[in-house]
Design a protein that fits this description.
2 strands; transmembrane; branched-chain amino acid transmembrane transporter activity; 347 residues; membrane; ABC transporter involved in vitamin B12 uptake, BtuC
Length: 347
């Protein structure tokens, strides 16, 4: 069916194709020039884009602000690191991280979804802080120093394998995973489940009268968001070779929220654009001054004041208008009607 949400999703898909094309161009330039710095930086931006994607799923569609989404990102990273230290297998690490974050998000969802609004934000913040403090004081997990020495692994695809130490190859793998998570989320949001989520954000009290369970919808979205964050976090130790408790701190969750606001709340692809923009700004401005957070804060304030819907939120309505105009444009017939000759017989 064609409604506003479907039209918005189609516009987001076009922006996603533009993003993938730009990423592939970056990979080609990096491979040709041999410059690995920006490829590694782009890979890190994509990994944190997965975290921002999970935040936008909750904030942009169900209206729930999570200030502790880094909890599941960090759990995925630590479980992945522990698995890689024992068995250097990409697929086993991803499966273990996914299973651990699935269980953790179910437990966290049972706790956090008992409340709404600002209390939900505070409980998610508290959950992340408690677990981060536990990890920070656990020697078996490296305590405050984190875990180092994560081996460089080979990622097998049947007879072909790609090393995680290959900047171009690993960048393309991370790109495929993050865009796959985006595609899965976009597909689910374009189903009746997505309509239920948007209904929750619009007016939660009326949803039960339509025959849907508010608790189940919120719980499913929370678990899905946690799983997306955990799978994204599982890629981090493969890139950097270490993990630290800082991955669970509020700064990580806060950066994800900022990324979503910069890109556009409720646009989905905007979270990915915003994450890439934020990581690049931190790197570029950080090379000029040690007070880069002040500059980024000013940019964020300007964006909130003059682009309240974010970058993608500013661009997407124009794409939607073009799509809508194209759908309403009459299609010319593929053949011209035969003309009657002057002397032909008439009925």
């Amino acid at each position: 069916m064609r409604d506003r949400l479907t039209l918005s999703m189609r516009a987001s898909h076009l922006l996603a194709l533009v993003f993938v094309a730009a990423a592939l161009a970056l990979a080609a330039i990096g491979a040709a020039s041999g410059d690995t710095f920006y490829l590694r930086l782009g890979t890190e931006a994509l990994i944190f884009a997965g975290l921002a994607l999970s935040v936008d799923l909750l904030l942009g569609y169900s209206g729930a602000l999570s200030l502790g989404q880094a909890l599941y990102f960090g759990i995925g990273a630590y479980v992945s690191a522990l698995t890689l230290l024992k068995v250097p297998s990409f697929w086993l690490a991803m499966a273990a991280a996914g299973g651990a974050t699935l269980v953790a998000s179910i437990i966290g969802g049972l706790i956090a979804n008992r409340v709404r609004g600002v209390y939900f934000a505070l409980i998610t913040f508290g959950l992340a802080q408690v677990v981060a403090k536990v990890v920070y004081n656990t020697r078996e997990l490296g305590a405050s120093d984190g875990m180092i020495g994560i081996p460089v692994i080979e990622i097998g695809f049947g007879p072909v394998s790609v090393s995680a130490g290959n900047p171009v190859g690993f960048f393309l793998i991370v790109l495929a995973i993050i865009m796959g998570l985006y595609g899965l989320t976009a597909y689910l949001l374009d189903t009746p489940f997505g309509r239920v989520l948007t209904a929750l954000k619009a007016n939660e009290k009326r949803v039960p009268f339509l025959g849907y369970s508010v608790w189940r919808a919120r719980m499913f979205s929370y678990v899905l968001a946690g799983l997306i964050a955990g799978l994204s976090g599982a890629l981090y130790p493969m890139l950097r070779g270490f993990v630290s408790p800082e991955l669970m701190f509020f700064a990580t969750s806060g950066n994800a929220v900022i990324s979503v606001i910069l890109g556009g709340v409720g646009t989905l692809i905007g979270a990915i654009y915003g994450s890439v923009l934020l990581v690049l700004l931190k790197s570029i401005i950080g090379s000029w001054t040690e007070h880069h957070l002040i500059v980024i804060g000013l940019i964020f304030m300007v964006c909130v004041m003059f682009l309240p819907k974010g970058l993608v939120g500013f661009i997407r309505p124009r794409i939607e208008a073009r799509l809508l105009a194209g759908a309403r444009k009459p299609v010319a017939p593929s053949f011209a009607p035969a003309r009657l000759e002057a002397g032909s017989a008439k009925p």
